[in-house]
Design brief:
- The protein is mainly alpha-helical and about 150 residues long.
- The protein has seven helices and no strands.
- Among the domains are: about 15-40; about 75-135.
- The protein is about 60% helix and about 0% strand.
Length: about 150
């Protein structure tokens, strides 16, 4: 019977220590609930500052505008790898344009640009307003022929 002796026996000092520990835990819990209720009441009394909120909104709009970039008119014959990447062209499309340019050929219209690069219609529609071809390409001048000239040969 001695081996079945209870291991949960406490002396008077240990019992009073456990009692004060439980009392302390209960007081902390009560303090937490009372303080939480006090803070909740105080948060309803907060009034937003309209002027400060307008300044914050203005700063957010300015930050969003800084993130956008503006596309300027450009000659599609001279698109670099980086410029093509920023415009949304794939690597294959840029390489097709560079291979075409390596043969000393030039793209002279948006249709020809699409044939060479095989770019999608939606991307071409977005980029084509920014294409800037030389004046001699867009005006299509007729070859100069002197009137009344006859070939002596």
């Amino acid at each position: 019977m001695k081996s079945l002796k209870s291991h949960v026996k406490f002396n008077k000092q240990e019992r009073s220590g456990i009692f004060f520990l439980l009392l302390l835990l209960i007081l902390v819990q009560l303090g937490y609930f009372i303080f939480r209720g006090y803070v909740a009441v105080g948060s309803r009394l907060m009034v937003p500052d309209v002027d400060t909120q307008q300044k914050i909104d203005l700063l957010r709009q300015n930050a969003l505008q800084k993130d956008t970039f503006q596309i300027y008119r450009f000659n599609p014959n001279f698109i670099t790898d980086y410029r093509g990447y920023t415009l949304g062209l794939s690597i294959e499309e840029i390489n097709r344009l560079h291979a075409f340019r390596d043969n000393n050929k030039f793209v002279n219209s948006t249709e020809e640009f699409q044939k060479v690069t095989e770019v999608s219609d939606s991307l071409l529609a977005a980029l084509s307003p920014y294409f800037k071809f030389p004046d001699w390409v867009s005006s299509n001048p007729k070859p100069y022929v002197k009137e009344g000239f006859t070939n002596p040969f």
